[in-house]
Each structure stands twice: as structure tokens, then as C-alpha cells.
Amino acid sequence: MANLYEFIDTNEMPDMTIRLPGEAVNINGVFLDNAIGGFTTVTVSGRDSLAYDITSENAGSSGTGELFLGKRLESRYLTINFKLVTSSASDLIAKFTTLKSVLSGDLIVKFNDDINKYYKGTLSEITNPPEGVLNFISSFEIYCADPICYSENPKGAYTATQGADGRYSVTVVNEGNVNAPITMTATMNAENGYIGMYTDYGITELGNKEEDDTEDYVSATTLFSTVDIPSTFTRYTGTNIENSSVSNSGIATNRTIGGNEFLHLSDVGTNNGYWHGSSYVYDFPPDGVGNIGSVNAYTYFNEVFWAGGMGQVGQTQVHFATADNEFICGFHLSKSDTKGNTGNYYMRYRDSATTIKTFKSGSFQTSHLNNENPFNLPRGHCDMRKRGADITFFWFGGYPKITVPYLANKKVAKMYINLYTLGSYPKMSYFDFRKIKLINDNATYNRDVKNRFQSGSVVKMTGADSKVYVDGMPKLSEKVDGSNLFTIPPGETTIYFQCSDWCTTPPTYQIEFTEANL
Predict the structure, then answer these.
(1) Global pTM?
(2) Is beta strand 260-267 parallel, antiparallel or unpaired with respect to 314-321?
(3) With 50 as the cut, is the pLDDT of residue 373 above it?
(4) Which of 31, 59, 271, 487 could form a Cys-Cys staple with 63, CB 3.0–4.6 A?
């Protein structure tokens, strides 16, 4: 007799426990229907509401009705009705406590039937449960000051191509029903001084459209930009120019972390009971007319300063000096905390022939967390600039500056990179240099100008906050006043791009955006 029943291996059945209602509410990545036993989303209201605050005035005696002046999109309230099944009064209290906890603070609100869209809001009310009832329907309300529903997944990147007319452009489609902020990224394929982005209704400009590439003048010259520091610098075993108590008998070599080259203190040298390690120096070459050194110099350096355990120690130094080894200024990261995880930064400068001072200093945690340590492994951007008497440093997005009359005419002719450990304490897991760039800002040449956007540089404009970044560093000053193209409207938009007329190979332009709906 034929088998009337098909065998089913229950071990291979799909998970039948994850059956959420279509409108199941998700708060900050957590479905309440899963997080709270007995909780079930019943209905949701407010997602499709649309209200405007109309501004008008009386038309006066010569007209009828009112004159329309404008309108403003009002805020939104999301009301979630839910069923809660509990077993006892204490169970009810525990589940409501969990609900209140999940709904505290700023909320990202999603729904199961459109899980890639979200609202931003905060709890405004939870309705009291009925007295004496363990199984009931109640509700809570979320206030959305911003009524827009945002898409979680950005569209793009879309790369611009060159048309028959020679212009570079990209056509994108915003399928939302409100303006969408755009992010523009331009990767330099050659030196460039200007980026223009425009449509029929707006334009944004970065850099300087009038910047030339072939003038005879004092220019900024990139002396080097390298990840192979030992091949660019020379080992230095003399006296530390900022602190003569430090020993320079060690050696630093390259090591590879995550596919990237880092300069690492491999031989700590003789233990002097104090800071000891390695020092490397770079001597400025003559410029186009034979001058050595510059009163204006700039360095960008990327370093990681991250302890792998409590009590580790380490110090890094970046110094500018004159041709006769007089210390000018320097940026230090130091961890002498032999028990905890606290590090310090120091911005040092020479105030007179006999005095070196600290301009700014502070502490931070040498952890892997972005909000605690700007020098964790994924980041580490920093720079230092001397422009005459002005010394500018970088720290956590800011550029502290001090004016030192004594340094006005001092020429930077040497740059030092130092790595030290303290006594015999365990050295930090990561206090390495990843990349260094040095620019002579006052070199005289009878040749091409070195322009603001170098080949390989990445320039990014984020329309959501109208900010500009160059190679990861905030450079809002590059945005030209009057720029106004930061969003695209619903529907199809063609965006055109322009660079400096003399740029030999235009940048690679890309556009991304995130759709949103009322």
C-alpha cells in the first residue's frame, strides 16, 4: 500500500517561532514582540498622517479669502496599540518596566512591513494598563519632531561619466517624496584646485576656481608623503632636542598590521630608567633657488596610539627644528600611566632662546573606542603647521593656534619622529606611525604650482550637514560662500561636475544619497 503521509524531518524545518505581525514595532534594532514575552503589536497609527501649518493673512478689502504666505510640515505622532499577556501582577510590572526601559532616550523606530525605513523620535506617553487585568490592550505614543521617514540603505555610489559635450555628469533618481541630502566624493587623478557641482537649480563649489598651476611664485611643495618612513628619514642617536634626558639608542622598523605598514619601536635601546627608544630625522632639501628650510611648513601624520592592556607605556613625538637643531614646536602623545589606561597629549613650542612651553595639553583613554581615542587603529589623523609666528595643531576636530613672536623668522629645516618607552614597564601594543606627509609652504620655484588637491587625495562633501573633508580631515574652509546644492528633489536629476581648466585628468566623481518620505 502506498505511503499516504510524507515524512517531515522536524529538525530541518524553518524556524516557525519568528512570526511577527506586519506592523511589529522595532525600537533601536529590537522587536518588542520578541524582547517582551506576551507582547504583540496590534495596530499602528500616525505613519500615514500628513499635516501642514499654513501661514496666511487677510486679503484686505480689495480681495476675497486670504493670501497664502507659506506652509510648514508639522511634527508626527506614532501610536502603537499592543496586546500584553501576563501571568501575575509581578510579571505585569516586570514587563512594563522592560517596556519603559526600551522606550527611553532617543529612538529609531521601524516596522516589520517596511524594515528598511525608520523614524526618529522620543516617547511621549504610555497608557496605564487597566486595573486588575493581566491580559489587556494598551498603547504608547512616540513624538517625532522630524516627521520624515528615512531609508536605511543609501543609493549609490553613482560614478559620473563624460558626455559627448565633454562635460562630466551623473543622472540619479530620488524615488522618495522629499528632498534627499547628497554625499559627493571626488578622488583626484591629478593635481586640481577646484571642484564644481551644479544642476539647473543649484551649485556647490570647493577650492578656488581661479587657482593657477603655472605661476612663478612662492608655493607649497610636498617634500614627501610616505608609509615607508625608514627609507625617508635617517636614524638619529644624538640628544633629543626638546628633552636632553631622553635616550635615542633604540631602533624602529616597519611592521604590517591589517595590510598596512607601520613604523614600530622594535628595539627600545638602553634602559636609562626614563624615556628611551628611537629617533629619526628628515633634513629639508634645497628648494628651486637653493634655500634650505622654510618659515612656513606643514606636516600631516597618521598614527595609532592604543594600549592593548592596562599599565602599558609609550610616547610618540613629532618635532620641527631649525638647521642648527633648535627645537621649534612639537606634538606629543604620552602614556606614563603604569596601572590604568590614561594617555595625554601635549602641544609644545619654543617661547624664547631658553624656554620651551606647553600650549595645550589634556588626557584621553587609550582604548579602541571612537569617542575616547582619536588615535585608535581605524583613525589617527593629525597635523601641525608653522606659518611665520603662528603655530597650529590639531585635536579632535579642532585647530588650536598660538602666535609666538620669537618663532616668526625661524626656518623649519628638520623634522623628527620619535618613539619611546618608559623604563622597564611593558610598552604599548600600538604606538606606531602609519603615514607622514611634509610640505614646505614657502619654497620658491619657477615651475608648476603645487595645488590644494593633490593626486590621490579624496574630497568629500556631505549634504546632510554641509561639511567638507579632505583626506579625512575637516576642511570646511574649502567650501565657497554661496554654495547651495546639498540635496536633490524627488524624481530624476542630472548633476554636472567641473574641475580646474588645467587639470590634466579630471577627478572621479561619485554621488550617494538616502531617500526619505513624508
Answers:
(1) 0.47
(2) unpaired
(3) yes
(4) 59
**What type of residue is 385?**
R
**What's at 452, amino acid-wise?**
R
Task: Give the residue among 420, 385, 377, 417 at the shortest CA–CA distance from 403.
Answer: 385
Counting other chains too, the contacts that 203-206 makes at CB distance below 8 Å and 24 or more residues apart are 203/483, 203/484, 203/485, 204/461, 204/479, 204/480, 204/483, 204/484, 204/485, 204/486, 205/479, 205/480, 205/482, 205/483, 206/459, 206/461, 206/468, 206/478, 206/479, 206/480, 206/483
Cα–Cα distance measured from residue 387 to residue 328, given in angstroms and rounded to the nearest whole number: 12
For residue 184, give the nearest of 482, 491, 493, 436 by alpha carbon.
493
Reported as a single tens digit per residue, the pLDDT across 187-212 is: 999 999 999 999 988 999 999 999 88
Average pLDDT over residues 217-223: 76
Tell me which residue of 468, 471, 388 sits closest to 436, measured CA to CA: 471
Report how far apart, in Å, the C-alpha atoms of 220 and of each of 213, 295, 298, 299, 440 are. 12, 12, 9, 12, 5
CB burial of residue 344 (10 Å; 0-12, 13-18, 19+): middle
Are the C-beta atoms of residues 453 and 461 closer than 8 Å to each other?
Answer: no
Report the C-alpha gap between 305 and 64 in whole angstroms: 71
- What residues contact residue 13 under an 8 Å CB cut-off, 6+ apart? none
By C-alpha distance, which of 73, 94, 76 is closest to 84? 94
Q: Confidence class of residue 247 from pLDDT cuts 50, 70 and 90?
A: very high
Give yes or no for a contact between 312 and 285, defined as CB atoms under 8 angstroms apart: no
* SS3 category, 360: strand
